[in-house]
């Protein structure tokens, strides 16, 4: 007869994969987990939330969507938007996690797939750390379970020798597990998820046991559009997922908002003050990225060639953050064209031959002629030669 291990897994995982961080260490973390960085917002939402919650959820689906999209609670608490994009996408994603289907977030690079998955797990389970990073070398043990070999050799297979994977822990604790870059994982390893997602069970034949998922368990996977084909998802696995495609920001204004908000957060973490003139530079970086990405100028008049890089929102964020650091350490603290020019060049010119020509043509035909962009043109020319 098969015994279930859920009580074992809940009480004492043989080798905890996430040792609890002392409070002081969390404060000092270079990049705190979402549930720590936004602990106040999560607590306020959970307190104000009187809607029905699915089993083991920290808050209702409505509150999770509000956490992601932002809003003001009846007690006046302001919830900052984490994701800027269509409300419906977030609603579908959250609802999926309350059903027996898993969630697959798909999209081109830098469309916030990882970001959204982390925040969903933080809001729903209060824990975004049950994470498996998908690579070409991800072994089955990372998804199922492994063994503590010292114990295995001395005592043979036993519960104490079992090393629980993040997915196994999520099953036993009724939480959300995350699998990053699912399509990078070799197909036979990916298939380990099929039984987990359809039977909600993880057999451990060596011990004659199984871990049964308790209510509240679900899984969020992310996959990159561009990597499709590296290891395609088998149709058997794909059927276990609801796919939600995250789009590029719809308008320049949305993208400016995303970049400004993230740069502000990152800058605070790095002790860089947001400069008052930063807004103009952010707008220009976003304009350049959007125009080159779409192959068309903002006014729709001039067709452009697109460079080989993705020019994602995530890259725009890092160009501006690096610019702020330059301004802070080597300038007067005010973000100027000269601080972002080198970063833009690095993002645009990936292929030294073809991309450089595309960039130069863009500089001479579009940037040079644009009203109020003279300083930007000069700064870009300086780093381009
Ligand atoms: N629509 C958006 N709303 C809020 N933030 C966004 C949005 N798009 C991008 N970002 C920001 O972009 C950054 C990068 O996002 P993330 O790493 O999640 O992208 P990704 O889709 O996982 O990319 P990759 O495919 O390269 O893994 C995050 O800091 C996130 O804040
Ligand atoms: Mg990602």
From TrEMBL:
Residues 1-27 have a biased composition (Low complexity). Transmembrane segments: none annotated. Gene3D superfamilies: P-loop containing nucleotide triphosphate hydrolases (3.40.50.300). Coiled coil: none annotated. Residues 1-31 are annotated as: Disordered. Residues 103-241 form the ATPase dynein-related AAA domain. InterPro entries: ATPase_dyneun-rel_AAA, CbbQ/NirQ/NorQ/GpvN, P-loop_NTPase. It holds the Pfam family AAA_5. SUPFAM superfamilies: P-loop containing nucleoside triphosphate hydrolases. This is AAA family ATPase. It comes from Streptomyces polygonati.
